[in-house]
């Protein structure tokens, strides 16, 4: 199987380690849990299910799934992001298994999850299609993948382009049509959009253009039987 981040994993972990302290204050991370609870309730089915959150960051999706009664495992390559997630889970009295590893390194059992979530992670990956192939492998047949991402930048101007950006096919963000193509390519079907459940402009303006709202998508798809 192709690797998700063959050359950028260490730089990516450094990047998120340095941003962890301010991540939760940014739009929608843990802040907009109520809006995302509506989506999770509608899109993921009744608890308790085995949920795997890939690239969990500070734990927004993992905590939400846990609070809905799911059994949650959450993986991230950044120790600092995970430290925030662990502290939040402790504070919320939620039992979540956190794994500090990249998706390529985490020893996750095949066909062990009923739900995989990948929120705002595809854009950070060198090989997003490999992440969807991995998700398919980790899901039980008929399991649900929830994938969400947005069009974050138009002309990013910091050093991350030099450090890893040039290696990322969706460095400026993931268009919904591309995500749908990736899902089909990885063998997922029954793609459904849940975007309408979050009206308005959840993420505010594009980071480099105050006039331009960030477009985003929320899709689920079913893994093959
Ligand atoms: C933009 S944050 C999104 C965090 C979270 N999913 C959310 O919605 O708030 C991207 C996260 O993906 C993680 N990540 C990126 N590449 C990864 C990889 N190859 N393996 C594991 N985690 C990765 C980063 O460390 C970071 O915490």
Low-confidence stretches: none
The CATH homologous superfamily is named Vaccinia Virus protein VP39
Shape: globular
Please state how the strands of the largest beta sheet are arranged side by side.
Answer: 3-2-1-4-5-9-6
| Strand-pairing-aware structural class | alpha/beta
Strand runs, count: 9
Structural summary, described in words:
- The protein contains seven helices and nine strands.
- Strands 3-2-1-4-5-9-6 form a seven-stranded mixed β-sheet, with helices on both faces. It has a two-stranded antiparallel sheet with strand order 7-8.
- The two termini are 20 Å apart.
- The protein has 225 residues and is α/β, with parallel strands linked by helices.
- Helix 1 (9-23) packs parallel to helix 4 (79-91) and helix 2 crosses helix 3 (60-67).
- It has helices spanning 9-23, 33-44, 60-67, 79-91, 128-138, 160-163, 176-185, and strands at 50-54, 71-76, 96-100, 113-119, 139-150, 189-193, 205-206, 209-213, 216-222.
- Bound molecules: S-adenosylmethionine (SAM).
- The site of S-adenosylmethionine has 24 residues, from helix 1, helix 3 and strand 2.
Structure, briefly:
Residues 52-147 form the Methyltransferase type domain. By secondary structure, the chain is α/β, with parallel strands linked by helices. It has helices at 9-23, 33-44, 60-67, 79-91, 128-138, 160-163, 176-185, and strands at 50-54, 71-76, 96-100, 113-119, 139-150, 189-193, 205-206, 209-213, 216-222.
């Amino acid at each position: 199987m192709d690797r998700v981040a063959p050359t950028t994993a260490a730089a990516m972990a450094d990047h998120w380690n340095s941003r962890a302290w301010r991540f939760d204050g940014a739009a929608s991370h843990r802040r907009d849990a109520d809006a995302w609870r509506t989506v999770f309730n509608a899109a993921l089915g009744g608890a308790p299910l085995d949920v795997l959150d890939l690239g969990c960051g500070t734990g927004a999706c993992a905590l939400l799934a846990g609070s809905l009664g799911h059994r949650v495992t959450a993986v991230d390559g950044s120790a600092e992001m995970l430290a925030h997630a662990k502290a939040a889970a402790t504070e919320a009295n939620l039992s979540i298994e956190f794994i500090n590893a990249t998706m390529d390194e985490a020893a996750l059992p095949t066909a062990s999850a009923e739900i995989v979530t990948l929120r705002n992670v595809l854009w950070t990956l060198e090989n997003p299609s490999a992440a969807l192939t991995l998700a398919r492998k980790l899901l039980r047949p008929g399991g649900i993948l929830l994938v969400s991402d947005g069009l974050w930048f138009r002309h990013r101007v910091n050093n991350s382009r030099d450090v890893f950006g040039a290696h990322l096919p969706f460095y400026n963000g993931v268009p919904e049509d591309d995500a749908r193509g990736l899902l089909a390519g990885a063998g997922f079907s029954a793609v459904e959009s849940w975007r309408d459940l979050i009206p308005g402009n959840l993420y505010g303006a594009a980071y480099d253009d105050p006039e331009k709202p960030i477009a985003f998508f929320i899709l689920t798809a079913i893994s093959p039987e």
